[in-house]
Amino acid sequence: MMRFFAIALLALCAVDASAHKPSDSYLVVNVAGDTVRGQWDIALRDLDFAIGLDSNGDSRITWGELRARHTEIAAYALSRITIMLDDVVCTPRVTANLVDEHTDGAYAVMQFEAPCGQTGGVLKLGYSLFADIDPQHKGLLRLEFDGTTRTAIFGPDSSQQRFELTRPDRLTQFVDYAREGVWHIWIGFDHILFLLSLLLPAVLVIVRNQWHAVERFKPAFWDVLKIVTAFTIAHSITLSLAALGVISLPTRLTESAIALSVVLAALNNVFPLFQGRRWMVAFGFGLIHGFGFASVLADLGLPRDALLLALVGFNLGVEAGQLAIVAVFLPVAFALRRTWFYRRVVMIGGSVLICLLASAWLAERAFNLKIMPF
Fold it and tell me: How far apart are CA 110 and CA 40, in angstroms?
């Protein structure tokens, strides 16, 4: 029965669904003397939406279609970034056009350099890519200078940023990577839905095969604490091992396993098998989610001079992001736990909806399909 239900859900999910990853671009900037060099990875789906790359309308972007629009892509992108070294404007020019595959699809890779004519102590960057069409778009920056690495996030509220070109202190690097950890858990919809699938039953208990409200807040709180702690410990183990190059798994396998973990966690709320042992499920699948987090650090790059500090900061950031979600979810769930609305609509209906969405991700990732609209 459960196997049939899972197969049926996969079939039902072969329709359009909302994307599971927001729009991001990855910008690497290296300052060496009087020259700023960089690499900018921009999702093809975003560029297609902005300037139209799919010339024949077959919903596939070929290398030929992309190559034919390189000049337009460069003009569009470079008009939305400003680079200043001290008070001197540096004009970037494209040096190479490539393509790379990220976990969420293909990206145009634009390498550039910007001669500034003088060295400087302050780098000022302005970023407005897709600001007019997608206010949720973020630019993830990795800044390299004098053998050190810093990170930053560009968005509507942080489109202009200033960087002192000095070696950052340990605290600054720690805060940078902690912020990235918080940001990643908040934009990682698959991670959030996995966590929510485990949290939904925390204010309920099964009696005679039916869900009933828990009587006190304390048992629910300790149940949630065990789940979040187990998930954190597990993903910290594999994130560290993967980021340090000790273990490496194929991205397709990792992303498929993460989607599967969401499906199974949500199904468990409809057909309970692990009631009372959800912390074990959180730990087991948390090991897989750690490899997903590691892909983000690979894009950001770990500072060579502060590997351990960056890893600890990123892990603590992920934990802080999770706790923020729990702090919002648990009191509301506890207040609603006795209502029919929570047990039927939020718990069962929400779990089914999560399962449907995660099944679409699983089919897309495992079989290299295009189910999501973007």
Answer: 5
